[in-house]
Amino acid sequence: xxxxxxxxxxxxxxxxxxxxxxxxxxxxxxxxxxxAWPPRAWSPPxxxxxxxxxxxxxxxxxxxxxxxxxxxxxxxxxxxxVPSPSCHPKSSLRSHPxxxxxxxxxxxxxxxxxxxxILPQRIRELxxxxxxxxxxxxxxxxxxxxxxxxxxxxxxxxxxxxxxKRKLRLYISNTFNxxxxxxxxxxxxxASWELRVEGKLLDDPxxxxxKFSSFFKSLxxxxxxxxxxxxxxxxxxxxxxxxxxxxxxxxKRPGDLSVRCTLLLxxxxxxxxxxxxxxxxxxxxxxTQSRSAIVQALWQYVKTNRLQDSHDKEYINGDKYFQxxxxxxRLKFSEIPQRLTALLLxxxxxxxxxVISVDPSDQKKTACYDIDVEVEExxxxxxxxxxxxxxxxxxxxxLDSKIHETIESINQLKIQRDFMLSFSRDPKGYIQDLLRxxxxxxxxxxxxxxxxxxxxxxxxxxxxxSQEAVSRYFYCKIQQRRQELEQSLVVRNT
Length: 494
Description:
Blueprint: H1 70-81, H2 89-93, H3 97-109, H4 121-126, H5 130-159, E1 163-177, E2 192-201, E3 216-222, H6 225-228, E4 234-238, E5 248-254, E6 259-267, E7 273-276, H7 278-284, E8 288-290, H8 291-304, E9 315-317, H9 320-326, E10 330-332, H10 336-340, E11 344-345, E12 350-356, E13 364-376, H11 378-388, H12 393-425, H13 427-446, H14 452-455, H15 464-493
Helix pairs in contact: 5-11, 12-13
Family: Belongs to the SMARCD family.
InterPro entries: SWIB_domain, SWIB_MDM2_dom_sf, SWIB_MDM2_domain
Protein name: SWI/SNF-related matrix-associated actin-dependent regulator of chromatin subfamily D member 3 isoform X1
């Protein structure tokens, strides 16, 4: 009797003792009811399969029927059972209304984009009036780009100091209080004078008035040292981080003689300014300026006189004036800010000489002086408020949400229109296509294996795979019974 292919149990089998290697299975899909798919191999009838004699030494246990490779078969089965969206274009359009509304809700939860506002081309073809909406959308895009560009320009402008020169009018007045012999208190019995220093901006358009002391870093009033001595002739005020701004300064001293005084006012420059060394001031034509303006003027002088090295642009070849100021014939431009430190001095204070008169005929005498000061550009506050303003953001967001909801409603109406139009053209065919599509979607959602609609028909089991599946099933059962018999014989012999 011949051996079946793969048999290792018959004593005369030439393949006895060799490892069993199954033939490569075919890659068509197995039926949904059978989890195993056999290769095309011959199986011996049950009558010809004999158990091994009991007197023989038990050999190694026969291996069970190896499972078929599941990669190709399962891939083929899955490709046959589960419809691919690309294979069924109607399924994406005629899907279940509940699933489509759910997908729209999920998309609405995501971040809105500009592309979500665009109407599809099919809708624009159906409704020609929608082109007006697309024109408005293009205009909105251009407007947003312009506003964004202007916002960037404003941000860059705010990084630079925006100052304008204004006139600060300084009022210096004094009053004299003669002595009163019949006064009860000691203050009234002694003659005294009072000096007041006040000021205001001329033609100030801003509603919020700026305090007088905010223009100065320090103020020193120097009185006659011969009259008030070396310890009481100075009145000083210096700005500190905790300084309370005031509208003026007041000094009161006893005395009945006219007093010469000197006022030293140091302006509070923002950004800080410096007085240039006389040689550098003559070279650049500047007296007092900020550090950045000085460096810019120096660079302009280098370019005008072509002092930059032609081979190495990093170096500057100084002329005779340049060498006298920086004390070197050649230096890097990056070294100039460091070398400028020794050439920059504190700015000169504003010096005002005033006479405090105690003449009874001139009870109140006021002197006026105009000082050039730099104040913030009024437009800077408006620019800052424009960047920080969020008043219209909520309204814009609400309108955008309304536009997105309207576009989604239009898309849903387009789907309903296509549904009704297809149904009106071919009611029977469309209903059948819809049912097939919904059946496939239902199997995908419920993860149901197999195809019940095909399995309930008899033609499904007359296909070629059914014969091989039956042979494989019986072959596996026989192998299982043979293994059980061998195990029982081994237990009995022991």
